[in-house]
């Protein structure tokens, strides 16, 4: 007898264990073929062997997961590029996906493709409401579980996880950015489209309603260096997303992006003495090797920055106009990675 | 663990009927298995790989002592990787593989 659950294709997909807990689009052969064609690549082309289990992410298997996520075929180049970027060894995908920590890859899209695919960079850009953000991010996460084998509670030991583990994709608002776009700073042309991946906690909101640029940066810096932020102990890359209002306020006051990074690096600091109370450093003197050379780990008064170098602070501009908010997204101790999107 | 439906199962049949493609790599299901177990640890060389978390070191030292007492290990190698957010280096992995009969690791958050 056929069970009730297997009559409906969507319920059938739940029974296979291949979903993220939300309904998926059943990946029929016809749909998958459409996605493969849109990628401009051979179905059997190998894009990555994904950790932790080394599943082979071919174009066809990526397409299957992208269909399940609810993507449109034209999203395929972004999804494929995100998977390629995640394989950068400096990102340490195995660690990010298996750690007890809360981090999960964030996908950031820059360049003309963001507009073409209507990837939200404005109001509620980390929230719901845009198919491209929701399904590109979701496809990446389905791929990491179904092909990488990062199954929660099995190989993925995240103590909590966060909602970005379902989907975590945003575009930079290049119109609201008073400086050069992120991907141009990274060495790409403005007409290039790129995907940057970052091992991120959930966004932490920084509210600042006044119009004093230096005070705002002081508030932001203070929010970046709590004793519970793993980066204070393991360094790596860290991410600030300035809201349009804050970015405009800073630019109008004459701050360049590099000045902002410099200020944050000099002010997002905690003393060695306080960090000795933090979990990771406690009882382990060898942790000091991760701090910058200018920190004397024997001097409790010395100040430790949130990351080793000024350029380990990454700055994007996104979010809705009119709100005096920015977000800080702590990293995991590894690096972000950026890659150009090749469209067919 | 990602899985495939049992061959001949109702789920497999329905997937086929609907023409649904599989989102996993089936080879992963068979490519990972435990190496054959040692018959005994007595007189073996044990490796103990820490991840630089303070509690991992405590746990691994205790485990090493217990194994030493119970099995009289021939030798043991204690080594830490650089930091828990980076993989162990190839040198560490190669050295453990060449020197040790078994390796114990721990995260000990």
How would you describe this protein?
The complex is a heterodimer of chains A (344) and B (109). Chain A is an alpha+beta fold and 344 residues long. Chain A has 14 helices and twelve strands. Chain A has helices at 4-7, 9-16, 29-39, 59-69, 76-86, 93-98, 112-116, 131-146, 182-185, 213-224, 231-234, 244-252, 257-267, 272-275; strands at 46-50, 55-58, 104-110, 169-171, 194-200, 204-207, 238-242, 269-271, 303-305, 313-317, 325-329, 337-340. In chain A, the strands form four sheets. In chain A, strands 4-3-5-12 form a four-stranded mixed β-sheet. In chain A, strands 6-11-7-10 form a four-stranded mixed β-sheet. In chain A, a hairpin with a 4-residue loop joins strand 1 (46-50) and strand 2 (55-58). The mean pLDDT of chain A is 94. Chain B has helices at 10-18, 28-31, 54-71, 90-99; strands spanning 45-50, 75-80, 102-105. In chain B, 38% of the residues lie in helices and 15% in strands. Chain B contains four helices and three strands. The model of chain B has no long low-confidence stretch (mean pLDDT 90). Chain B folds into two domains: 1-33, no CATH class; 45-105. In chain B, helix 3 links the parallel strand 1 and strand 2. Chain B is α/β, with parallel strands linked by helices and 109 residues long. The radius of gyration of chain B is 20 Å and the shape is elongated. Chain A binds chain B through residues 2-3, 6, 9, 12-13, 15-18, 26-30, 32, 53-57, 60-61, 64-65, 67-68, 92, 94-95, 99-100, 142, 145-147, 149, 151, 154, 157, 159, 230, 234, 236, 280, 282-284, 286-287, 290, 332-334, and chain B through 1-3, 5, 10-11, 14-15, 18-25, 27-28, 31-32, 52-54, 57, 80, 83-87, 107, 109.
